[in-house]
Design a protein that fits this description.
470 residues
Length: 470
């Protein structure tokens, strides 16, 4: 006897399975996205793990397979993948406004917190207890970047004997940024070209299994979810040329109107105008996440425009690691300090000018991410798995490993030497920072301690060290 259900019965069982999970209202989703904005700590990996636990394992809003499918799309795009993943799932559940709400609430709490912390920094940064906390946090940040090199490198690079081209790309990228001071965009373009050529002549070196996420798939896929493995793609998520054109037009308008307003108000050389233009470019180059684009932000914000100093940039990264939201939100700190130092609205409105600058920077940094998801989600789905499309991105990811390694070297040099690496004499070595960096790295890599616990521990050590005049 056949054990197959008739088509009509099978269809009814699928419907019943989906009915077992009640629909989620827009308001209920809104409350969760707001909560996520306050608890999204631990960098991209931690944020994705939080969403997986909440959405896949507990709330059952989306299945494991669909969650990973969405994550794979976001990993292919420039921009913060965790924020884009939230935007994608919000869009899949509640159309465009659902995606906008999820993406905005993912970063809004962090923006408010960083504006407040940045004000404390520029106003009270010289107080001993503030300086002590920052003194301890900076070695933790250096250790976190070293951990990022290890984590991304272990996933992006195969054995040297299997994929020597990818290792060469990573090595050359490190040399280009750390030693030759080549601008980050050129490194990305060279890596993309290498990947495009590589898929034609050495395709096996550029193939990946595309796995990102939890190993608990077997534990959760048998339970019904709102968006299940076999749930049809909703009409609003299917690719249509007319919808693509509409979203691109709205996105372009949302960029042109504020940029045009800044241009008329302050002129091309105005600080706010330059910030808007610079961080638009930065947003389009964030393949591999915030760690990959930070060298580019450093080159522009510190060396080119002098919005802030190298030590201030280090302090900003320390603050960024202690707040929820994507790490790229450190650009809000860069904007605030830059707006303060350049007196964006004049000497009598330092706080207001700095706040406007932080808001401008955040707007131009995250606007492309919304456009990528709302316009490109269905388009990326149609090209997913094609080596001609994925090979350049695989090469860019390899380059990102070298770029992040150069960032780790930059952090370590600024921590090791009291002069920030300018004077490398033995007398300038800060042995306490070196030891704290080593211990924080050991805690993260060897003992698998959480990022937040390491930051808190280092901050307390730095506070005690400085307050006791050591």
């Amino acid at each position: 006897m056949s054990t197959h259900l008739p088509a009509k019965t099978a269809s009814a069982s699928v419907v019943a399975k989906h009915q077992a999970v009640s629909a989620v209202s827009f308001f209920a989703a809104l409350k969760f996205w707001l909560k996520l904005g306050f608890i999204s700590l631990g960098g991209p990996a931690g944020q994705i793990a939080i969403m997986h636990r909440e959405l896949v394992e507990e709330k059952r809003w989306i299945s494991e397979k669909r969650f990973l499918h969405a994550l794979n799309y976001c990993m292919l795009l420039p921009g913060p993948e965790a924020q884009q993943l939230a935007t994608y799932i919000g869009w899949l559940m509640h159309r465009t406004w659902g995606g906008v709400a999820a993406g905005v609430l993912f970063v809004l709490p962090s923006l408010f917190m960083l504006i407040g912390l940045s004000w404390v920094y520029v106003t009270f940064g010289n107080l001993p207890w503030v300086a002590g906390l920052l003194y301890g946090i900076k070695p933790a940040v250096a250790a976190i970047v070293v951990q990022a090199v290890h984590r991304i490198g272990s996933k992006a690079l195969k054995k040297p004997s299997v994929a020597p081209v990818l290792w060469a790309v990573a090595t050359i990228s490190f040399i280009a940024i750390a030693l030759l001071n080549i601008p980050f965009p050129w490194v990305v373009l060279a890596a993309a070209l290498t990947g495009w050529l590589g898929q034609r002549f050495a395709p096996k070196q550029f193939t990946t299994d595309g796995r990102h996420g939890s190993s608990s798939a077997d534990d959760v896929t048998h339970r019904p979810t709102l968006i299940d493995d076999d749930t049809p793609t909703p009409p609003h998520a299917r690719f249509k040329k007319s919808r693509l054109a509409a979203v691109l037009a709205v996105g372009a308008l949302l960029w042109l109107l504020p940029m045009g307003g800044l241009l008329v108000w302050q002129g091309w050389s105005g600080a706010l105008t330059q910030m808007g233009w610079f961080f638009t470019k930065a947003a389009l180059l964030t393949f591999g996440g915030a760690y990959a684009v930070l060298p580019y932000v450093y080159q522009g914000a510190v060396e080119q425009f002098a919005w802030l100093t190298a030590p201030q940039m280090m302090d900003g990264l320390a603050l960024g690691e202690t707040t929820p939201g994507p790490l790229i939100m450190v650009v809000a700190y860069v904007g605030f300090v830059g707006g303060w130092s350049k007196q964006a609205l004049g000497p009598d409105a330092l706080f207001l000018g700095a706040t406007v600058a932080a808001t401008v920077v955040t707007w131009f940094t995250f606007l492309p991410s919304f456009v990528f998801i709302l316009a490109g989600g269905p388009l990326v789905e149609s090209t997913h798995g094609r080596l001609q499309f994925t090979a350049p991105l695989t090469a860019i990811t390899a380059a990102v490993v070298g770029v992040i390694a150069s960032l780790a070297l930059f952090f370590i040099m600024h921590i090791t030497y009291r002069s920030g690496g300018g004077d490398r004499s033995l007398s300038q070595i800060d042995f306490a920072s070196v030891v704290l960096t080593a211990l924080a790295t050991l805690a993260l890599l060897r003992y698998k301690q959480g990022v937040i616990s390491v930051i808190i521990a280092c901050a307390l050590v730095g506070l005690v060290w400085r307050l006791n005049g050591l």
